[in-house]
Amino acid sequence: MYNISEIARRLETTAHTLRYYEKEKLLSPNRNANGERVYSEGELKWLQFVMKLKQTQMPIAKIRKYAELLKEGEHTAAARLQLLNEHRESIKEQIENLLETEKLLNKKINAYKQMIRK
């Protein structure tokens, strides 16, 4: 079990972000006798997944929808699969855009290198 500062440190985020995810109903950690949030290993893994989704530009609303479907049970597997497939397509588009941008940057960098050599 982890407290909020331990989880934040392990995830390289802030306690504020974790509280925000809780407010957005992405998780609901248990509380100890003092009322402090207590996170399980399963919640740590879930948060790692949530943060990867966030890093790849999945909107909080879609992550929330995924979390709601997950809580509903196995009968929502097809809907969860669709959400993840759609997000994978979005990631592929991001990768293509980044690769195109990298090509443009490489051209500019090479042009400046040649300019400097002269």
Automatic annotation (TrEMBL):
Q: Tell me yes or no: is Coiled coil among this UniProt entry's keywords.
A: yes
All copies of the HTH merR-type domain together span: 1-69
Which branch of life, at top level?
Answer: Bacteria
Q: Which SMART domains match?
A: HTH_MERR
* InterPro entries associated with the record: DNA-bd_dom_put_sf, MerR-type_HTH_dom, MerR_fam
Ordered alphabetically, the record's keywords are: Coiled coil, DNA-binding
Q: One Pfam match, by short name?
A: MerR_1
Using the record for this protein, list the coiled-coil segments as residue ranges, or answer none. Answer: 81-115
The name of this protein is MerR family transcriptional regulator
